[in-house]
Amino acid sequence: MAATFRLLILVLVLVVSPSVRAARDAGAVVSRIAFGSCANQSAPQPIWDAVVAFDPQVFVWLGDNVYGDNKRPFRVFGKERTVGPWKNVPRFYPSTEEELRRRYQLAKAKPGYASLRERAQVIGTWDDHDYGLNDAGKEFSGKVFTQRLLLDFLDEAEDSKRRKQAGVYTSYMFGPEGKRVKVILLDTRYHRDPLLSDGTILGDPQWQWLERELHGPQSEITVIGSSIQVVSNLSATTGPLFYVESWARFPRERERLFRLIESSKRNGVIFVSGDVHFGEIARFDCGVPYPLYDVTSSGLTQSVDNSVPAVFQPIMRLLAVLTPTTMRVLNPNCLYKSCTTGQPNFGAIEIDWNAVPPRIKLELRDVEGRSVHSVEFPISELQPSVFIIAVVLLAITCLSSILMCSKKTKKE
């Protein structure tokens, strides 16, 4: 009787959750992808209800999937000074293997996340806090056991290549020919040089792997997941007051990434990222011969607005408006004037394969599932020929307007 009951439950799950079957069948069409980062396992996580309501076929973790390190109090004076000119101990320190395992178990047991795992295929990479230590790179000594624990959290197969390589980078291909979506997940921690070195982020083995991935079988859309922002130039405008980790702090690596995408002649590349505790959509028109979008979703629980008392949150939003940026996508449909969100959020990608031509929507949603920022365009815009034609037409239009104004001025 018990066996019959369990079989009935399994049948019901498969019937009511078609997205599970679609996502895990590599040949099925994928049209909805959700992604997010920065989820404190000890905090309430109501946002999972909105993620589940979006009904993604694939969910992508972009790092800080748990907060696995520890933080000492903010102290300028005293026996243990964690900040300031007399700092004598680091503010952050790593957890033991057992403690990190317990935190992953706590995260995995969240009811909303458990519901998502039943409906969608969950994949992901890591950032610093689940890697094991704030802002850490290749020097972190605990990365072997933290890699194992992350892959356990993601239900990675025991015989997976990811369990044998140095780093958690990987890729997936979804959908049939003509409707293919490739997801490439980078590891920006395991091989990364110190922040001020302008050295490497990925390391030689991962660069060689990435080159093979980008030159491999084509796809209509290629989503590249990076735990840190690729396109944003925020640190260029906020420094030296404060800096955020990003590819912009490794300019030679970022230029190498853009050149590799261009040389691979791969169309449809989109970046998704996390880390910074706010959400935004950035666009760069000078990296490859078509626009490069970077959708930053951060975080599922951690956010800049919630890091300060409610009375100061309007000030945070004003600062977001006043901070100069040349990469951020601005449009009148944004929920906030800055076209950023400092509240908990997740990212969503929707693809309308039936439209002529097919269209894609990149979006940030809040804890209620409301859209706070989005862009939508034909997938064909992420191709060199279409982009170049659009630029030429725009230039011709501008030139025509200038000539017309000049003629009117002469007549007067």
Automatic annotation (TrEMBL):
PhoD-like phosphatase metallophosphatase domain boundaries: 34-130, 163-284
SUPFAM superfamilies: Metallo-dependent phosphatases
Cleavable signal peptide: 1-22
Keyword Ribosomal protein among UniProt keywords: no
Keywords: Membrane, Signal, Transmembrane, Transmembrane helix
Pfam families, A to Z: PhoD
Transmembrane segments: 386-405
Domain of life: Eukaryota
Ubl conjugation is among the record's keywords: no
Annotated protein name in UniProt: PhoD-like phosphatase metallophosphatase domain-containing protein
Organism, as annotated: Panicum miliaceum (Proso millet)
